[in-house]
Amino acid sequence: GNSVTQMEGPVTLSEEAFLTINCTYTATGYPSLFWYVQYPGEGLQLLLKATKADDKGSNKGFEATYRKETTSFHLEKGSVQVSDSAVYFCALSGLGGFKTIFGAGTRLFVKA
Amino acid sequence: DADVTQTPRNRITKTGKRIMLECSQTKGHDRMYWYRQDPGLGLRLIYYSFDVKDINKGEISDGYSVSRQAQAKFSLSLESAIPNQTALYFCATSDNTGDQPQHFGDGTRLSIL
């Protein structure tokens, strides 16, 4: 079946450190891939997306590249800020239906 | 104003009570969803609706029911609440194409004693 696996958290970094959150997927077909972010007390909001192989999604300094050969969509940021502290969810959709399949989420703490 | 509004934001109730969580949206989307979030489990789909006349069960629908009163409104009910339904509940909407992102409300934190 279709699934998303992301690295377990929490991830704790110091401000200005480099961030990578790993995400791999299993899919029968060619899904669209997403990263959502959830700040404390809020719902999920779209951070970035990529719809086909080798596409790079980017937003707010975050980037992720759709890698079909490794079925991955790792999230990266070159220099994190305290305000990036949140839970990050990798997700896929568009497999001939409606469902969005979410990973379990990775909590990020950034220390000043 | 928020595009997807959930009410209430917080609710504490007792086992056996009937609870209704409400969701309204101004996005103009046909598709609406109810999810449950538990620590370490991510989001699990409870019910979804593609339009007013279409209701479908998700992966964890037992103990829940829904009503799609209008394109903009989608309610979730717990007919007889039990403690293991304590969780954070999210409503979401999306466009009709399969690869569009979902838009979430800010959630309802439900505690059942």
How are the elements arranged and paired?
The complex is a heterodimer of chains A (112) and B (113).
Chain A: E1 3-6, E2 11-14, E3 19-21, E4 23-26, E5 32-38, E6 44-50, E7 56-59, E8 62-65, E9 75-77, E10 86-93, E11 101-102, E12 106-111
Parallel strand pairs in A: 2-12
Antiparallel strand pairs in A: 1-4, 3-9, 5-6, 5-10, 7-8, 8-9, 10-11, 10-12
Chain B: E1 4-7, E2 10-13, E3 19-25, E4 31-38, E5 42-51, E6 54-57, E7 64-70, E8 73-78, E9 87-94, E10 103-104, E11 108-112
Parallel strand pairs in B: 2-11
Antiparallel strand pairs in B: 1-3, 3-8, 4-5, 4-9, 5-6, 7-8, 9-10, 9-11
What does it look like?
The complex is a heterodimer of chains A (112) and B (113). Chain A has 112 residues and is mainly beta. Helix content of chain A is 0%, strand content 50%. Chain A is built from no helices and twelve strands. Chain A has strands spanning 3-6, 11-14, 19-21, 23-26, 32-38, 44-50, 56-59, 62-65, 75-77, 86-93, 101-102, 106-111. In chain A, strand 5 (32-38) and strand 6 form a beta hairpin. Chain B is mostly beta strands and 113 residues long. In chain B, the strands form two sheets. In chain B, strands 2, 4, 5, 6, 9, 10 and 11 form a seven-stranded mixed β-sheet that branches. Chain B has a four-stranded antiparallel β-sheet with strand order 1-3-8-7, with no helix packed on it. Chain B starts with a strand and ends with a strand. In chain B, 36% of the residues are buried. Classes of the chains: A mainly beta (112), B mainly beta (113). Chains A and B meet through strand 5 and strand 6 of A and strand 5, strand 9 and strand 10 of B.
